[in-house]
Design goal:
By secondary structure, this protein is of the alpha/beta class. Strand 2 and strand 3 form a beta hairpin. Bound molecules: adenosine-5'-diphosphate and magnesium ion. Adenosine-5'-diphosphate binds next to helix 5 and helix 6.
Amino acid sequence: MFSNAEIGIDLGTANILVYTKAKGIILNEPSVVAINSQNNQVVAVGKEAKEMVGKTPRHIVPIRPLKDGVIADYDITAQMLKEILKKVSKKAGVSMRKPTVVVCTPSGSTSVERRAIHNAVKSYGAKEVHLIEEPIAAAIGSDLPVDEPISSVIVDIGGGTSEVAIISFGGVVSCKSARIGGDKLDEEIIQYIRRHFNILIGESTAEKIKMEIGYALIDHPEETMEVRGRDLVTGLPRVITVTSTQIQDAIRESLLSILETIHATLESCPPELSGDIVDHGITIAGGGALIKGMQEWLANKIHVPVHLAPNPLESVAIGTGKSLKMIQKLQKATK
Ligand code: ADP
Ligand code: MG
């Protein structure tokens, strides 16, 4: 039995992941909460709540409290965190009494929000709670040499935001964040299909299209996919065929905005660090890194090597868990 469990939590805009030293990733669920609007009670959290999206009676409202990278409602975020910790202690099969917890918070969060997250975890019985910046966690989880005098660039394309950071000596040298991520691509796909086919599709369908036939702006053999939606003229269900070229058109502007954010961050890089970036390139993580052709497209556009993180969806959680060693080292050094 580990009475002093160490846990890392990635509080992402789309997914929450929990990592323990003993078992690796032990929980990976959507950051969704279903609320009963009649009494404001939490009905479900995570997978169960996501499955309710678009399908529940009117008074059950699924919400994503972290959707845009800022905490829309921190009461609900705190309740979600507690439910997640409950699930974790059931799954972990180890005593979760007084765990040490490191939480990665969205980089747009304010000090009040960070405090709220800290308190929610603490009130669940954590012995120590540490908050870590997302780019550092992503870099550690992507095996980048963060505490060495070599600068690394990490691009984390999540659900609600994309974060680009230059890291050196364990700290963020320069960082830019854009409120554009996988969610925005899904929205663009919904809009495109509405405009070009007069068909309304749901968010989950749009996400499926993106994952199956969504390409970054590279040449590729065209793919097609059958899509079901509601005809806006007749009101009836209809099946259409969409092509990967059409989807590329739909998401073009958003992809260019992500590229622009990367560009702007590299431009703000201190000249002494530019050499490292030319040699070592940048690393992409987050679910958006999995868009087909992303690595190739970015490499063509920014002319430095582009690496894909070993587990793009898990980088932050792994890094959060592993950062504990670094935090303890720092604490010792400052004592
Ligand atoms: P966050 O850290 O904000 O919670 P994640 O890094 O978990 O976000 O990424 C979630 C986003 O990545 C979602 O928009 C999801 O649709 C997208 N995504 C996940 N897998 C893929 C894939 N294979 N191809 C394209 N997009 C993906
Ligand atoms: Mg993330």
